[in-house]
Amino acid sequence: MERNNQKKQVIDKNKRVRKVNKNINEDTNKNRKEMVISLIAIILIVLFVIILAVVNNNMNQTKKNENLQGKTVTKNESYNNNLSKEEQEKIDKANEMIEITPEILKEKLEKGENMLLDFHATWCEPCKLMKPEIAKALENGVKIYKIDIDKYRETAIQYGVRVMPTLIAIKDKKVFKTVYGYQGVEKIQSIYNEIK
User: Fold this and answer.
1) 80 domain-assigned
2) How far is CA 121 from the centre of its chain?
3) Domains in the chain: how many in total?
4) Of 91, 97, 127, 156, which residue is the catalytic one?
5) Highest mean pLDDT out of 21-35, 65-79, 90-104, 126-140
6) Are 141 and 180 found together in one domain?
7) Lowest mean pLDDT, pick from 24-28, 75-79, 130-134
8) Are residues 186 and 89 part of one domain?
9) Amino acid 112: pLDDT
10) What is the pTM of this model?
11) Tag placement on the chain: N or C end, fewer CB within 10 Å?
């Protein structure tokens, strides 16, 4: 009888342990489901915020473009009204640099002319910022030929231009020096002096 009681107690204990384990497993599964749902909600919120930021940025860019449409810029005007007349004149002078075509470049190379090439694009902000520096260099007698990479893409590829602006100094029919990014007048003058 006592043995039967012990068996019964062991069986009851095992049933209770199974029941507790079952409850723990159910709670664990419930917690996992809640965590997955929370994670999905967080991901959706982050995606929503990113989409809002992109849409907002596109709307701002569209407004900027709409504001610029219909404006004609003359030689003495600028989109940046904060420039002084003197600074604007320097930019205008930089715009008067000699634009060189691939054919003329080839002729000059064949003649052995040393030259400084400015690879740029009309949409390149650092190129625009560098125009006053180029204008100062032109005033100091530096001779610079400009190459618009959008017009003469093959030439830009030929010279390995990947960053704008890029200044390439040609000496003795070969690339002597390549400088990437915005450069001040001193650096432009220094490069030019090396190939004179």
Assistant:
1) no
2) 14
3) 2
4) 127
5) 126-140
6) yes
7) 75-79
8) yes
9) 92
10) 0.54
11) N
Domain match, 187 and 91 both: yes
Task: Report pLDDT for 72.
Answer: 36
pLDDT at 82: 59
Tens of pLDDT along 65-97?
A: 454 443 333 333 444 455 676 666 656 555 557
CA 98 to chain centre: 28
Residues 191 and 97 in one domain: yes
Question: Is residue 109 within 8 Å of residue 170, measured between CB atoms?
Answer: yes
SS3 177: strand
* Residue 103 token pair: 């054919």
The domain containing residue 5 runs over which residues?
A: 1-70
Written as one letter, the residue type at 108 is K
52 and 13 share a domain?
Answer: yes
Q: Does residue 77 lie within any of the structural domains?
A: no
pLDDT for res 20: 73
Say whether 169 is catalytic.
Answer: no
* Given the residues 83, 88, 124, 179, the one annotated as active site: 124
Q: What is the token pair recorded at 126?
A: 């650092």
25 is catalytic: no
Burial class (CB in 10 A: 0-12, 13-18, 19+), 39: exposed
Q: Are residues 91 and 182 in the same domain?
A: yes
